[in-house]
């Protein structure tokens, strides 16, 4: 039994003057932002791990059928290797979420921070913690920027020469627009979630649970769904659009024919169904070539050619062929929400779907 639990004198609100209580909502908003940020980053990593596992299995199957076992890819090159720059509050919470909820093996996660000695908790788990941003970027294929906006220009200058074209940079620095980040890094494979906060909201984010525990609570997890407006924090759905095109880029880097890529997308995003989908399979969405590229490009793309390489910053700033479907297709929204919750181990029915809302497309 925790004798200090719920002790009034240890609560955040204790001692705050009555006239200052009106600002307490900022505590709930801050916690909600961290929970949503960690949830969406975790979901993205789950997708990448599932994609890599699927690609590895299908490649191995083809090798077994053709007898070309020597062509099986190097496991180390095919693993998701995650680097976190910044060991503050957000960096630590993100690391815990990725370790416990994806889960990412400790040997596939590294943290670069100015105070690695403060990360003893993670070093005991076998995670390498150090202060060498270029070294981290040279090793990882997914980098999370969990640093202060004021530190970002210096960090970008350190790492830009080490960034491989296929390395995905995922930025939490809300004060740095994605167009500016593109210039600082001289890189286009960037994801930057943008959150819009509303003034009047019901604080559902709690105060005492660890982030990882909060994301295992069904009500909290549903509030983090990409299309949900619960808790007063709305995700700009252009982030989800960027996620799709980031996965297209991964497949393009492997020179995968576009028809094969579409098959992987359907398996990755549309493999979880509602009960009525079995009765009416025609109602389930399926991705087509024209969903991602314009009609002119579609006509000139031979069956064996891969998708082009996409500038993810442009995807998140401008309209794409996929924009309208992602924002207006209720069938697609329902299936993506179902997949999101299922990836965290929570089952949904259509009646439990969260309220759909979309943030402003401005960046």
Automatic annotation (TrEMBL):
InterPro entries xref list: NAD(P)-bd_dom_sf, P5C_Rdtase_cat_N
Boundaries of every Pyrroline-5-carboxylate reductase catalytic N-terminal domain copy: 81-174
Gene3D superfamilies found in the cross-reference section: NAD(P)-binding Rossmann-like Domain
Entry similarity comment: Belongs to the pyrroline-5-carboxylate reductase family.
Full protein name: Pyrroline-5-carboxylate reductase catalytic N-terminal domain-containing protein
Name of encoding gene: NOXRED1
